[in-house]
Amino acid sequence: MLAKGEASTLIVSKMDRLSRSLLDFARIMADAQAQGWKLLALDAPADPTTPAGELTATMLAAFTQHERRLIGERTRAALAEKQAAGVRLGRPRVLTAAVRKRITAERAEGATFDRTANP
What we know:
With 119 residues, the chain is mainly alpha-helical. The chain folds into two domains: 9-87, Resolvase, N-terminal catalytic domain (Rossmann fold); 91-119, no CATH class. The protein contains five helices and two strands, in the order βααβααα. The chain has helices spanning 15-18, 22-35, 51-84, 97-108, 113-117, and strands at residues 9-12, 38-41. Strands 1-2 form a two-stranded parallel sheet.
């Protein structure tokens, strides 16, 4: 609707919900300027249509991207620590060992997935 001129403003509740990538944010800002619509983030006091507001919004986007990367690092570290401690990660297995063995044997003999699933 923005690109077609059917709307004049993109309203987001929080800047970090719009994008957590500085490149994506820059693309959105460029689109807004080129297509003539405004961006309004309810949690950001800056008006991104002004030079000072654009700078402020860009800085907020940079911090948002930084926080996203920190979260990723912390998550990877926590998962590696759990894995090193022997914790099995992922969904719990729902197939019994006997069923897994049957599937492996049937597939090794050339059975199709359909045939293996519907014996």
